[in-house]
């Protein structure tokens, strides 16, 4: 069983779109969004995957979501079948934090590979959860997005040193840091130094769910990236579709 997010009540969030962020930005992909997260970022743009009624952890929108309307449990074979209705040769598994469901994900991806052995598997993760051993060999790419102090999470939950070191050594992993303020940059530089993250595998991305905010932050963030030898990624899907589910 996998717990997915929904686009509308009862409708699992499986969709085709251009990958909007990171090293694969612009690539046509099929996406599946899993529900649940082990963190609680103040600016999370998918709070409907975790901030259910009764969860009072701080969020800038202060919204709470009905679990029954925003989650759906499906058998691995049913999720695989939904994904196979889409023709893209790349799958992006996102959330929430998808690695919380590693064992079930491994079974689902194994089913996909029977029909489409060449399907490229990309996972978006907050970088705190070890990859289930059955899932690990099936994954081509990890987009790892460690959460900085401005996310509001306790550091000991958000930054797990042995996990960060493992990602830094894994050539399949690309770091993608969400940046809201110039003060975030020193924190990123310290993490890069401590864990040995290669410049080529380090992306900075503006925080924002509106085109205007992304543009404003991109102006200074792109300059900083250039100066520091880091990579920059925009959030293409926000410019194209706004902050909407299933895009
Ligand atoms: N088009 C598109 N690209 C994305 N890349 C990462 C996403 C995410 O929500 O994790 C995402 C998303 O939601 N949509
Ligand atoms: S780790 Fe990602 S899904 Fe989880 S709360 Fe933070 S931004 Fe949202
Ligand atoms: Mg997103």
In short:
This protein is α/β, with parallel strands linked by helices.
Topology:
Layout: E1 2-8, E2 11-12, E3 14-18, E4 28-33, H1 67-70, E5 71-74, H2 76-84, E6 90-94, H3 102-115, E7 120-125, E8 141-144, H4 155-158, H5 161-169, E9 173-179, H6 184-195, E10 202-206, H7 211-228, E11 231-232, H8 236-241
Parallel strand pairs: 4-6, 6-7, 7-8, 8-9, 9-10, 10-11
Antiparallel strand pairs: 1-2, 1-5, 3-4
Helix pairs in contact: 2-3
The structure holds the ligand Nc1nc2[nH]cc(C(=O)O)c2c(=O)[nH]1, iron/sulfur cluster and magnesium ion.
Domain Radical SAM core: 24-243
Pfam families: Fer4_12 (PF13353)
Binding site for S-adenosyl-L-methionine: 43-45, 96, 145-147
Describe the overall structure:
Residues 24-243 form the Radical SAM core domain. With 247 residues, this protein is α/β, with parallel strands linked by helices. It has a single domain (2-178), classed as TIM Barrel. It has 8 helices and 11 strands. The strands form 2 sheets. It has an 8-stranded mixed β-sheet. Strands 2-1-5 form a 3-stranded antiparallel β-sheet. It is globular and about 45 Å long.
């Amino acid at each position: 069983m996998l717990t997915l997010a929904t686009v509308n009540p009862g409708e699992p969030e499986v969709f085709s779109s251009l990958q909007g962020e990171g090293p694969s930005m612009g690539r046509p992909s099929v996406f599946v969004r899993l529900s649940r997260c082990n963190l609680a970022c103040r600016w999370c743009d998918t709070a409907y995957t975790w901030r259910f009624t009764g969860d009072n952890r701080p969020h800038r929108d202060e919204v709470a979501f009905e679990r029954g309307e925003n989650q759906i449990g499906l058998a691995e074979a049913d999720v695989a079948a939904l994904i196979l209705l889409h023709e893209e040769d790349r799958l992006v598994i996102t959330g929430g934090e998808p690695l919380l469901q590693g064992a079930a994900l491994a079974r689902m991806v194994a089913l996909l590979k029977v029909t489409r052995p060449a399907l490229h598997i990309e996972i978006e993760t907050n970088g705190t959860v070890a990859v289930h051993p059955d899932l690990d060999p099936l994954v081509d790419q990890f987009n790892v997005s460690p959460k900085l102090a401005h996310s509001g999470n306790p550091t000991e939950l958000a930054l797990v040193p042995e996990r960060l070191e493992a990602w830094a050594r894994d050539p399949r992993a690309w770091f993608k840091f969400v940046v809201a303020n110039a003060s975030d940059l020193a924190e990123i530089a310290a993490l890069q130094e401590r864990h040995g993250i290669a410049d080529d595998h380090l992306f900075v991305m503006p925080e924002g769910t509106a085109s205007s905010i992304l543009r404003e932050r991109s102006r200074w963030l792109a300059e900083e990236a250039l100066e520091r030898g880091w990579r920059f990624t925009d959030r293409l899907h926000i410019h194209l579709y706004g902050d909407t589910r299933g895009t």
